[in-house]
Amino acid sequence: MMTNEQANELFRQYRKTGDKSVRNKLVENYMYIAEILAKKFAGRGVEYDDLLQVASEALILGVEKFDPDMGNQFTTYVTPTITGMIKNYFRDYSRSVRLPRRIYTLGTRIKNETNEYYKQYGVKPTVKQLAEKLGESEEAVMEAMESRHPVSLDGTVQNEDGDGVLYDVIPDPVDSFEKFDDAQSLKDEIKKLSPTEQKVVALRFVQGKSQSEVGKILGVSQMFVSRAERKIVEKLKEALSQ
């Protein structure tokens, strides 16, 4: 176990160099905090190993963000961070479809890093910037972001006429989803689409990307995306008319 002075020297070294081996030494030194807090919340319907994974991710985040020259001890600084992430995990655990632990923890790190980046620069980081900062692939970051933010029918997107929602941006000739009264049923039917079709919905109608942009992301032609849109809408209209 390091003394506070020894640990603070390593914190300063990590802040200066970003050396992951230094970070890992600090994480190992303070892992007992994650273990204690995970045990504290165990036995409430979630396995201890799952809670320890969440607590460990929070500990890593705390190590990465801690400034030893701000006057606080690390144990005092990191305990609320770990506790908060565990409580958030319990909140999200009640979802009908639980995210894989790896995706959940990465998504939490992405959320925290995005908030920090926005506070510092006033804009949100790109997927590439997040991937570099978190030491993950761009594909992993995108997967976590999409999993934590499933298709939302009332999510605002930008179209040629200004802001709109998914109901408003489905193109002709199928005349959008405005005819559907039951939004929840529509959401349920979207979940039944194939992974590729769900990606098309998310990219086109939530993120507001053009058909050409979607085609490049998925590695298909613009014509394929256009046909996929028509097919998706027809499938949903048929399902909801029954």
What is the arithmetic mean of pLDDT? 77
Oligomerization: single chain
Query: What is the end-to-end distance?
Result: 65 Å
Shape: elongated
Structural class call reads mainly alpha
Number of domains: 3
Name of the CATH class of the largest domain? Mainly Alpha
Strand content: under 5%
Question: Uncertain spans, ≥5 residues at pLDDT below 50?
Answer: 150-182
CATH architecture of the largest domain: Up-down Bundle
Our Rg estimate from Cα atoms comes to: 22 Å
Q: What name does the CATH topology of the largest domain carry?
A: Four Helix Bundle (Hemerythrin (Met), subunit A)
Largest sheet: 2 strands, antiparallel
- Tally of separate helices: 12
Strand order of the largest sheet: 1-2
Tell how many strands the DSSP assignment holds.
Answer: 2
Overall helicity: 55-70%
